[in-house]
Amino acid sequence: MLKVGVLGAGHLGKIHLRLLNESPKYDLIGFYDPDDINGQKVAAEFGYTYIENINELIDAVDVIDIVTPTLSHYDCAKKAMEKGKHVFIEKPITNTLEEAEELLQLEQKNGVKGQVGHVERFNPAFLAVKDKIQSPMFIEAHRLAEFNPRGTDVPVVLDLMIHDIDAILSVVNSEVKQINASGVSVISNSPDIANARIEFENGCVANLTASRISLKNMRKSRFFQRDAYISVDFLEKKAEVVKMKDAPESPGDFDMILQNAEGVKKQIYFENPEIEANNAILDELETFADAITQNTTPVVTLKQGTQALRVALQIIQSF
């Protein structure tokens, strides 16, 4: 078991505390929160050990789980990594690209491992079809949320869209060529609605929309590639694969056949991948434990978290 400590006991921090406390792969030593009143309250309510000194907690563990506001990710991770501790950092990895790149250097210098909490990589609907997404050429993603004051300290791109940015970067094996985007501030001081068009060197185009002032929640992505269309509903945890193949010479009565202008006939057929229920947050934390104990590469590396942040910041800068 790896000794773990949590930094931050807010809404998400409490979820991490509960899951780490239940996981057989971790020994939860305690948590730190800069708000002493909140720290005492969480300790009294749930029974976790509240450690008032951040350095004392870091010294006592093997892994630090950083679930603090984004502005403090860098400082917390740097303290831990300089003491030789592995770090799990909630998304986005840091507030600035410079901070993220310094953490990459610290990771290598101190021989530790890091993982970024891009939890949608562990969404069962995405896991069910990820291997089927091969060389997509057009991607459309919509991530809409009802207004919640929590998270409005950062633009909607860093709050919501970055989930889809990371997922898309994980399946498009190409460098970003060009980004065009627009964003509008409606309620917050930072953009609440954003749309981005990302063009990749290999010709793939991704069109992303994110809003945190919608009337309903939606998290859907669609991937179009040669002879296939793949739909992922991250919210409902559903996925569908629509494929095409050469039509048989004698199609059945219920076969769906399309014929193009050149007379080529294709048969359309549907696949409904089996989706295995999971706890995505628990999975991301436990796969990180496996990466440490088995000395393998984390599922979402600090480098990948940095790439997602880089694209997100480029989108914000192009508003």
How would you sum up this structure, described in words?
One of its GO terms (molecular function) is nucleotide binding. InterPro entries: Gfo/Idh/MocA-like_OxRdtase_N, Gfo/Idh/MocA_Oxidoreductases, GFO_IDH_MocA-like_dom, NAD(P)-bd_dom_sf. Helix 4 links the parallel strand 3 and strand 4. The N and C termini lie far apart (46 Å). The chain has 2 domains: 111 residues, Rossmann fold (3-Layer(aba) Sandwich), CATH 3.40.50.720; 166 residues, Dihydrodipicolinate Reductase, domain 2 (2-Layer Sandwich), CATH 3.30.360. Helices cover 33% and strands 29% of the residues. With 319 residues, the protein is α/β, with parallel strands linked by helices. The longest helix is centred in the middle third of the chain and has 16 residues. The mean pLDDT is 94. It is globular. The strands form 2 sheets. A 9-stranded mixed β-sheet has the order 7-8-9-6-10-11-12-14-13. Strands 2-1-3-4-5 form a 5-stranded parallel β-sheet, with helices on both faces.
Please render the helix and strand layout as text.
Elements (H helix, E strand, L loop, with lengths): L1 E6 L3 H12 L3 E7 L3 H11 L7 H6 L3 E4 L6 H10 L3 E5 L6 H14 L3 E4 L6 H6 L8 E7 L11 H16 L4 E9 L8 E8 L4 E7 L6 E8 L2 E6 L4 E9 L9 E4 L5 E7 L8 H14 L8 H16 L2
Parallel strand pairs: 1-2, 1-3, 3-4, 4-5, 6-9
Antiparallel strand pairs: 6-10, 7-8, 8-9, 10-11, 11-12, 12-14, 13-14
Task: Give a brief outline of the structure.
The chain is α/β, with parallel strands linked by helices and 319 residues long. The protein has 2 domains: 2-112, NAD(P)-binding Rossmann-like Domain (Rossmann fold), CATH 3.40.50; 121-279 and 311-317, Dihydrodipicolinate Reductase, domain 2 (2-Layer Sandwich), CATH 3.30.360. It has helices at 11-22, 36-46, 54-59, 73-82, 97-110, 124-129, 156-171, 280-293, 302-317, and strands at residues 2-7, 26-32, 63-66, 86-90, 114-117, 138-144, 176-184, 193-200, 205-211, 218-225, 228-233, 238-246, 256-259, 265-271.
